[in-house]
Amino acid sequence: MLISYLLAFLYVSNYIHLAKSLNQPLPSLKHTTTINAAQKTSVSLHQSVTWKQNSSGLQTYIVLVHPPSENTPNGCEKWYKSFLPATNSKLIYSYTNVVSGFAAKLTHEDVEEMKTKPGFVHAYPDRLLALLTTHTPDFLGISSASSLWNGSNFGQSIIIGVLDTGVLPTHPSFNDQGMPPPPAKWKGVCQFKNCNNKLIGARNYVQGQSSKAPFDNVGHGTHTASTAGGMFVKNSDIIGQATGTAAGMAPYAHLAMYKVCTDIGCYDSDILAGMDAAVSDGVDILSLSLGGSSRPFYSDSIAIGAFGAVEKGVIVSCAAGNSGPSYGTLSNEAPWILTVGASTINRVLRTTVKLGNGQQFNGESAYQPQGFRSIPRPLVYPGSINSSAATCKIGSLKGINVRGKVVICDDGDVDRVLKGSVVKKAGGVAMILANQAVEGYTTLASVNVLPASHVSYEDGLEIKTYISSNPKPMASIFFQGTLLGVTPAPVTGYFTSRGPNQADPSILKPDIIGPGVNILAAWPFLVGAKSRFNMISGTSMATPHLTGIAALLKHSHPDWSPAAIKSAIMTSSEITDNDGNVILDHTLNTADFFTVGAGHVNPSKANYPGLVYDIKPISYVSYLCGLNYTDKQVSAITRRPIICSTIQSISGSELNYPSFMVFLTASNNYTTVVHRTVTNVGLPKSTYTLEITPPPIGVSMIVNPKSLKFTKAKQELQFSVTFSSTNNNTGGLSFFETLLTWVSSDKSITVRSPVMVGLS
Ligand SMILES: *[C@@H]1O[C@H](CO)[C@@H](O)[C@H](O)[C@H]1NC(C)=O
Ligand SMILES: *[C@@H]1O[C@H](CO)[C@@H](O)[C@H](O)[C@H]1NC(C)=O
Ligand SMILES: *[C@@H]1O[C@H](CO)[C@@H](O)[C@H](O)[C@H]1NC(C)=O
Ligand SMILES: *[C@@H]1O[C@H](CO)[C@@H](O)[C@H](O)[C@H]1NC(C)=O
Ligand SMILES: *[C@@H]1O[C@H](CO)[C@@H](O)[C@H](O)[C@H]1NC(C)=O
Ligand SMILES: *[C@@H]1O[C@H](CO)[C@@H](O)[C@H](O)[C@H]1NC(C)=O
To answer: Ranges for the PA domain (predicted)?
Structure first.
């Protein structure tokens, strides 16, 4: 008997016609199947692509080949070398664990010649990818009694591998007081003299640096590693603010650093070498706060390396990218990766601007000088005198009188802290940093060189209106220190990359958001007089939060697959903020699923998800064939020859993912059916019912059955969801969102999936 139910789209008012609402064209959803080495992808804040090519025409290529047959003497390296031309070329890396192939310096002609050799699968040029806390354990609710920390023993015995810029091993966040030695399976190497039971491994995979210990000359790696698994450090702060005991998400987990990045970024070939080593060393989780622009998975090194890692049971947590708020800007889109976006926490380092007319505007700054006199001073906007001085870039304030004044500068052009030095040098007393329109309400607490306040775009406009309508505009700045419990939080950062997924539009990404704005964590250099902690923002900061939380869950549930842990994190997440409203974005409008994915991580709930949407690695192979990749393209990812015609392929919407993304178009007659299987990881005898809300106009969603009755642990039950629409005249592609939620009979557990329907 078929029991059908219309499940409602939760936000009927949240009908989003993306192309219209953002006044920008929707990204094309077609696969890019040709890769043009000469073509540079547009360079944005943290994403860039460059090719290592020198004047002799040699450049580094990643070459993927079938594995050697079992009776090949001397194994991989000899087999790999058999592909190399006799002259000039050079083998850089032989990969053996997560990739079948190598990196080598080759000419374009060399690569063409290789393509004719048996066993060749795929080759693409190396590219440069970009690098994309005291308080966050409390904000995330894992530090309170009876919490996940207690339940998972702080992540003890779990090994987190971090691919980043290296680490400062002597930082107090990496002390190992009270930590046991790593588990016996650990086979890694330490290139420092001072590794210990916290920092158990450290290797340099930056080409040309392999003999040097992987010290962090950038700061990024020390920050991310300590966020994932930093030890408790009392009295940490940033120049007197945000004081408290700092700790990573999994303070008793072991850390291994694989240095694959420098200040200019990270090369594919080095990243693959790091992933290859980490998996063979025995890490449980890989954390990559780096990424590039979208590519088909068979030319995306992180996607390829992550596939091999996930097949071996290693969870791979990656940054979503910092190319927001435009749509279609994600990195790390493969369904076997946990893709992490960034949002604010409920702590601000508050500064308040008070205008001569009494108007007040709250902003942020980490530098909060004690002796500053908060008296009214003349206020000036250089941009109203000479438009090229609006951002206070170097040299721009010449001929503009800012002496003794409060100066308002627009964000953009140059580093935010650098603007402060320009203002200070020109004699300005204080700076108001005003966001650009795209940055909305996301403000950053920086270590400014003068009294300053970073305000939102809207507030900046109001301050400028006041300036232009007053003959003698005045302003004072008040420093209010560190405020906790600020609402609303979380709010997504303007920069966090947005879906839709370009590599495969049928998988909704990002998966989850976590703390990534104004995050305090370990830093290798002194900040101010005494502290080695720094506050920085990015999806790079959100990623290690999720990595550490995954470590805690791995400790509590050693038998859960990477897909099960991802499902637990996603279906238990929060979709509301600390005001009880649906999570907002940087414009303070409701954030859509292309921004938040399943929502904001709730670690304690993720420990008891009730049901999980599990995926066996073999399903990803069926999925790759369903993408209509060629056999060679699929084999490039799977590290073994795959013939798609011999296996059953599935479409992306049929992958057993914890979220739903479907398209209703003329080609499917505005109807599609998808199936899911949920596994009971809660009480053996338990019943879940579907949660129902009023239906949307024009789109229906029928779930069958509407109730799932489990009688034993690990039992699997299936359901189907039929999507259909009679509305085939929307004038372009529009997206509808809703939620599909299974609620346990005692209402203690909700297993919630975001659902996105694209209609054209
Ligand atoms: C180009 O690369 C080759 C191989 O690594 C190297 O021998 C050569 O010196 C390089 N040439 C330049 C100009 O950098
Ligand atoms: C941790 O959990 C145990 C039981 O699981 C309990 O006895 C203990 O009080 C808890 N400790 C804290 C600090 O909550
Ligand atoms: C405005 O600034 C630019 C760059 O600093 C300068 O070249 C130009 O002369 C200035 N214009 C005026 C009217 O001062
Ligand atoms: C793959 O090809 C089949 C048959 O032509 C088509 O129905 C399907 O939509 C294609 N899938 C993708 C992801 O392009
Ligand atoms: C398309 O859907 C309509 C309405 O459900 C139905 O009447 C029609 O037969 C379908 N056409 C095809 C080709 O399936
Ligand atoms: C789509 O619209 C056309 C023209 O408006 C109509 O003839 C057709 O029946 C519609 N199809 C569906 C599935 O509603």
So the answer is: 378-463
Distance (Å) from CA 151 to ligand 2 centroid = 8
Q: 716-725 and 750-759 as β-strands: parallel, antiparallel, unpaired? A: unpaired
Coil, strand or helix at 174: helix
Q: How many CA atoms lie within 13 A of 328 on its CB side?
A: 16
Return the closest-CA partner of residue 570 out of 532, 537, 542, 612: 612
Question: Ligand 1: which atom is nearest the Cα of residue 55?
Answer: 13
Q: Does residue 87 line the site of ligand 1, with CB under 6 A?
A: no
Exposure class string for 685-711: b at 16+ Cβ within 10 A, else e = ebebbbbeeebbebbbbbbbbbebebe
Pocket test for ligand 4, best of 32, 650, 651, 661 (most atoms within 8 A of CB): 651
Cα–Cα distance measured from residue 509 to residue 319, given in angstroms and rounded to the nearest whole number: 11
Distances (CA, A) of 68 to 65, 71, 103, 116, 253: 9, 8, 16, 17, 36
Calpha distance 237→470 (Å, rounded): 40
Burial environment of residue 715 by CB neighbours within 10 A (0 to 12, 13 to 18, 19 or more):
middle
Q: Whole-angstrom Cα distance, residue 80 to residue 70?
A: 14
| pLDDT tens by residue, 427-462 | 999 999 999 999 999 999 988 999 999 999 999 999
DSSP calls for 675-702: EEEEEE-S-SSEEEEE---PPPSSEEEE
Q: Does 726 contact ligand 6 (Cβ within 6 A)?
A: yes
First-to-last C-alpha distance (Å) of the chain: 32
Q: Which amino acid is at 317?
A: S
For residue 399, the ligand 3 atom closest to its alpha carbon is 14
DSSP secondary structure of 322-350: S-TTSSS--S---TTSEEEEEE--SEEEE
Q: What angle do CA 514, 515, 519 make, to 5 degrees?
A: 155
Please tell me the predicted confidence (pLDDT) of residue 122. 96
Q: How far apart are CA 99 and CA 274, in angstroms?
A: 11
Distance (Å, rounded) from C-alpha 262 to C-alpha 276? 19
d(CA 11, CA 78): 59
Residue nearest to atom 3 of ligand 3 (CA): 388
Which one-letter amino acid corresponds to residue 258? Y
Please tell me the pTM assigned to this model: 0.89
Q: How far is CA 478 from CA 246, 370, 666, in A?
A: 27, 11, 59
pLDDT score, position 253 = 97
Q: Which two tokens stand for residue 351?
A: 């500064």
Name the one residue in this structure whose structure tokens are 């860039």: 48
Burial of 553 (0-12, 13-18, 19+ CB in 10 A): buried
**What pLDDT is stored for residue 290 in this prediction?**
94
Q: Is the CB of 667 under 6 A from ligand 6?
A: no
- Please, what's the largest Cα pairwise distance for the chain? 86
CB 516 within 8 A of CB 343: yes
The dihedral built from the CA positions of residue 633, 634, 637 and 640, taken in this order, carries a sign that is: negative
271 phi, psi to nearest 5 deg = -60, -45
Name the stretches of the chain with pLDDT < 50.
1-53, 133-134, 145
Q: Identify whether the C-beta of residue 160 lies closer than 8 Å to the C-beta of residue 229.
A: yes
> Could you give the CA distance from residue 132 to residue 134 in angstroms, rounded to a whole number?
22
The alpha helices in 282-401, defined as continuous H runs, are 301-311, 382-385
**How would you write 248-278 as a 3-class SS string?**
CCCCCCEEEEEECEECCEEEHHHHHHHHHHH
Cα three-residue angle 319-325-330, rounded to 5 degrees: 35
Rounded distance between C-alpha atoms, residue 6 and residue 681, angstroms: 27
